[in-house]
Amino acid sequence: MASLHAGLSTGRLRIYTPALYDDGTPWKKEREQDRCQLLLKIQSHYKEALERLTGSDVVRRFLPSGVCVGLLDPVSNIIVNALLAATADKASAPVAVDGPDLGDTERHSLDGLVTFLTCFFPYLADWEAVRYLLLAEADPLVAARIVVEDRGTKCFRPDSAATNGALKLALRCATVAAKYPQLTDAWLSLCSSLDKAVPLLSAVQPNYHHNIFNNLHTLFKETAHVPYPPPTGRGLIGPWELATTRRTHTTKVPYQHSWSLRRVLLDAIHGFYLKALSRMPGGSRYHRSMLKAGHCYGPFDPVSNIILNTIWYEANFPPLTPQRELDFVGTWSLMRIEALSLYGLLSFLCTCHQDLSMHEAMRILIETDLNLPATKHYSSVMEEQEAFRAAAIAAWYPHRNPDAQAGFLSSCKKPEVLSLLSNGGQQQFSSQAVQQLATLLASGMTTQQQQPVSVSKRQFDDTMSEGSEWRRAHKRICKKVKDALRIYEKQNSGDNNCYQLYVVCGVNEYVSGPDNSEESIMKRDDTDDEFDNYYHHTHANFLVTRNVGSICSVPVLFFAELSNHGDDDQLLCCPVDIPPPGAGIYMLPFFYFIRYTWLFINYSDAHITHCLSIYMTWFVTDSHFLETSQFDTTIISGCYR
């Protein structure tokens, strides 16, 4: 989380920096109380289901199989799942008719409901999902509706392909968590006949007529062979429409979930940096400046601001020595500048609007897609330069010179600058256009050559050794990525010279593990530490250009799953889309964080997006990690310094 820095927030400046001890998570006792309340609510649903099934001993004995995970209200979900178990006749020994022991079923139901919500909304923590489910009385789709309204999700549409894909995936994960994975197919097939199923389920009351059970039994058998709803269209809109009818009033959320909103914003910022990388000219000349000072706050849209800050810093603060040409941007370096940009954005808004809280500032950023000019109607008469100075201080502007960046950003709104930024839309900048921008942005300021910093020999040797180690790792990964591209070309175009690696922009080497079996230990490289855990795969994002004749295309984002073994085994390589800002609020096809990787397939187009989400709290709270290095020519941990 971020917190107001008392020492830096002088006068009207409100500077937000990493909160060292507060990630927004409630105390353990409070989280346990919330789960207990949700479990009590689930128990009340089972009590109602037992009452409604009075007189049907056959169905009641299958109730332990009736988890309350599904696409209807909780009680209907319980009854449907019990009937599905009875229809399949896969129950074990009969249970007592007077009241089966449902303790395990109730706990599995809670796990399934929480999993449903956290899969549909990848940024929700378990404790946040529990709170939303409490507000929805354990109704999964009603809870999803409350989240959508609470977060102001603009891109949510119940009939969209993305929503259909997210719903299918969330349901599948939920049934697995509830220990009944076979229920997913039955529910998806039943979607086409909900108009028939709902009236029959409503008629299930104490001592109901057995014809109702027979009709439901027949319906389930008929729908078992019905194809799934297509990924596009209104195939899965029925459950959402029914969920709307179950809400009689607007639910007021009494919590401020700033923790997950921060993750939404960081993911949106990551997408902006990928777009900015794709628009910059080839080669790594500007990578150093982007990773050191290419913040996404400024007087224009976020992508333009990144480009603007990058070119201005490169023109006015050139490196001490020529930079090594690398087609690789360090993962941690990219995450670092993204986190610093977020602190800058929050500090800008809260300095402009003195009565604004951090949570409110986050909501404004989400509503405006992090476009600061769009927040003008919230502004007071505070001078813009002071707000940019607050942003630069919060972002730890290189050399502790926030006045330089603040003065630049408040004076760069020239027509010729805007014209160059807008020219070509989303097309890649030519070297000539970048040079023109650099000339415009450097005018009126003397180039400031950075001075070397005196360090001890031991620190210098350690830094150089670590930099060499990471350069070797980068070289190895780039080779694997290029090999994956060659295979993709042969499979799709047959042209071995068509695709060219532009830049690797995200790597996770810790996939499919840890595995400490004897077989895996034998696969370790000689350079691996004997105490390191072994992981079988690496996931990578990279930008690729395609040569069509003499014309080079705009870089396209790719994803690849690579083997960590010595062979060239490749599981997957494909182009992916960069999700628009806010898409991850409710559907993130590929969600990644440092030690664990979950694969979410977008059923709408079978694409997988590999997004960096700042999940590990220590990253955004470790002030040492966020500090600018003293060495300008050394790469540490994949970072251009």
Biggest beta sheet attributes = 5 strands, antiparallel
Q: What would you report as the Rg, rounded to the nearest angstrom?
A: 28 Å
* Arithmetic mean of pLDDT: 77
What's the shape?
Answer: globular
Structural class: alpha+beta
Helix content: 40-55%
Approximate strand percentage: 5-15%
Task: Please describe the structure with a list of short key phrases separated by commas or semicolons.
641 residues; alpha+beta; five-stranded antiparallel beta sheet; three-stranded mixed beta sheet; 12 strands; globular; disordered C terminus
Structural description of this entry:
It is built from 24 helices and twelve strands. The protein is α+β, with helices and mostly antiparallel strands. The strands form four sheets. Strands 3, 4, 5, 6 and 7 form a five-stranded antiparallel β-sheet that branches. The protein has a three-stranded mixed β-sheet with strand order 9-8-10. A two-stranded antiparallel ribbon has the order 1-2. Helix 1 (28-52) packs across helix 5 (126-135), helix 7 packs antiparallel against helix 8 (183-190) and helix 17 (384-394) packs across helix 18.
Fold blueprint:
Blueprint: E1 2-4, E2 16-18, H1 28-52, H2 57-60, H3 74-88, H4 103-120, H5 126-135, H6 140-151, H7 161-177, H8 183-190, H9 194-202, H10 210-223, H11 237-245, H12 258-279, H13 287-293, H14 302-316, H15 331-352, H16 358-367, H17 384-394, H18 402-409, H19 415-422, H20 431-442, H21 457-492, E3 499-511, H22 518-522, E4 537-548, E5 551-552, E6 556-563, E7 570-575, E8 590-592, E9 597-599, E10 611-612, H23 617-621, H24 623-626, E11 635-636, E12 639-640
